[in-house]
Amino acid sequence: MTIHELANNPTLSGQVRLIENVVYGAMDGEALHLSILTPWTQRFPKQYQTEPRPLIVFVQGSSWRTPTLGEEIPQLVQFVKAGYIVATVQHRSSIEGHPFPAFLQDVKTAIRFLRTNAKKYAIDPQKVAIWGTSSGANAAMLVGLTGDDPRYKVDLYQDQSDAVDAVVSCFAPMDVEKTFEYDSNVPGNKLLQYCLLGSDVSKWSEIEKQMSPLYQVKDGQNYPPFLLFHGDADKVVPYEQMEEMYMRLQDNGNSVEAYRVKGANHERDFWSPTIYNTVQKFLDDQFK
């Protein structure tokens, strides 16, 4: 009989912990949840010291409904192994009676919650990035462009900032009105507009501009660095919106990188190891 021998792992190197369904607040009587990926050492604070790490706040696309927390967690684990803390965030659903700006208020509240609990979760509160996909990327862009804007600040954790230090956007609606026009034949399109924008159609245009990152860039204002991705075969959000946003930020003197993903549709075949590696390099350049 041959018994092989392996060395133990006294530093817990490479091990990742998932902290599920953390309640970060409540709005309209509805609990708001996030999940956190941290190093395994963070589970044993008396035996191990986990040095503070940059934070990635991830918002999954959901057509402005409640996002699925676990959608990207298998892929996001690699960022914890690369030295980050990752939090995936849910927000209220527009189709359940929570129109704009509910989703934006919630994501900002989650950021302030995470800064409030930075020590508990081994977060460096001075190094916070936000990363979103589709409607989650719309939220991420708006967070990057409206840091600490009083219009979107609720009572929770008001002593903390909701501004971020880097933004990653994957196939975001940059012009909400044109996105709805592009999707006009999709079943439920009009219902979603009523849920998201309200029953007064005369106000839709103004609300859509408030929701559109393209129209929220203020001349001469400094913003965090942006990394933009979009597939040029996207059937949900027009690829051209990314190019327009790239030019708007560049013309304003802001730091922005953009990538066209050749032949990629919305989600689906968009993702690849190259995307994740490009995101990591961008964040490493900002934080390490």
UniProtKB/TrEMBL annotation:
Keywords: Hydrolase. SUPFAM superfamilies: alpha/beta-Hydrolases. Residues 47-249 form the BD-FAE-like domain. Pfam families: BD-FAE. The keyword Endoplasmic reticulum does not apply. InterPro entries: AB_hydrolase_fold, BD-FAE-like_dom, GDXG_lipolytic_enzyme. The keyword Hydrolase applies. This is Lipase.
